[in-house]
Amino acid sequence: MPASSPESLTPSPGPLHVALIMDGNGRWAERRGLPRAMGHREGVQALKRTVQAAPELGIRCLTVFGFSTENWQRPAEEVSDLMGLVRSYVASDLKRLEREGVRVRVLGRRTGLPSDIAAIIERAEATTAHNDKFLLQVAFNYGGRADIIDAAQRYVDLVLAGEAAGPLNEQTLASGLSTAGGPPVDVIVRTSGEQRLSNFLLWEAAYAELVYQNVLWPDYGPAALADVVQQYQNRDRRFGGRPAPGVSPAPALAAG
Ligand code: FPP
C-alpha cells in the first residue's frame, strides 16, 4: 500500500517533502566539552521540535537520516548510543505521533539490526499505519547505494520467479526502493555546513533541491526549517525542461 497518495496531499507552494541530514551532533557536544552521546541526545530534541513545526509550514513529509550503513564503523559505544535513541524516541513519542496523525515509516535494511530495535520499528510502523496527516520517514541502517542494490535484486528475484511485468525501467526500479509509494523529495537539507549527500537518497535526489545550513543539528528547530521553506520557494525547479512562464513542470506527487 502506498505510504501516501496524491489525494492525501493538498496543493501547496511547497516543499511538501523535506529530507534532512541531521549533521553536527558530535561537534555540538565537543564544543561544550560533553560526550558525543549528549550531542545525539540533544539531536533527538531537535528532531522532535522539527517534526512538530513541519505541518505548520505546509510540509507533509519529513525524511531524516538517523543511522547510515556506514555508521556501523563508529565505536561500539556510539553505535549502542544511537540504537538507544530509537528506543527512547519511540518510547517517549510514539503515542503522540499516533494521536497527531503521523505515519511512521522506517527506510533501510532490517537485517543486522538488534532484534528489539527491529521489533520497535515494526511496532511504530504498525501502530501508525492508518495515519495520513503527515509522513515521518526515518532512514535507519540505510544507505542510498544499498537501497538501489536491494531494489535491483528484488527485480532480479521477480525475473527468476517469472513474475516481472516488463523490462527494467525507472518506475520498476523505484518500486523496489524503500521509499516506494512515498511522495517525491522536494529538497534535501544538510546541517552543520558540510556539503555532500553521504549516500543519502541517491536515487531520490535526482531532481531535489539542495540546501546547506550552517546550524549544528542539536540547535535546529522551527526557524531553521522556515528558512528552508523560504529558500525552496525562491528556487526555479525545471526538472530538466524549459517551462513557459508560470507553468510548473513538477511531476505528480506520489512516487511510483
Ligand atoms: C550526525 O552527527 C548524526 C548522526 C550520525 C545521528 C543522527 C541521529 C539523531 C539526530 C538522533 C535522532 C535519531 C533517531 C532515529 C531517533 P555526527 O555525529 O556525525 O556529528 P559530527 O559530524 O559533528 O561528528
Please describe what this structure looks like:
With 256 residues, the protein is an alpha/beta fold. The chain has a domain at 14-142 and 185-233: Decaprenyl diphosphate synthase-like (Undecaprenyl pyrophosphate synthetase, 3-Layer(aba) Sandwich), CATH 3.40.1180.10. It is 38% helix and 14% strand. It contains 7 helices and 6 strands. It has helices at residues 25-31, 36-53, 76-99, 115-128, 144-160, 170-174, 222-233, and strands at 17-21, 61-68, 102-107, 134-142, 187-190, 209-212. A 6-stranded parallel sheet has the order 3-4-2-1-5-6, sandwiched between helices. Strand 3 (102-107), helix 4 (115-128) and strand 4 (134-142) form a beta-alpha-beta unit. The longest helix is centred in the middle third of the chain and has 24 residues, at 76-99. The chain binds farnesyl diphosphate. Residues 22-27, 40, 43-44, 47, 66, 71, 82, 85-86, 89, 138, 140, 192, 217 line the site of farnesyl diphosphate. Farnesyl diphosphate is lined by residues 22-27, 40, 43-44, 47, 66, 71, 82, 85-86, 89, 138, 140, 192, 217.
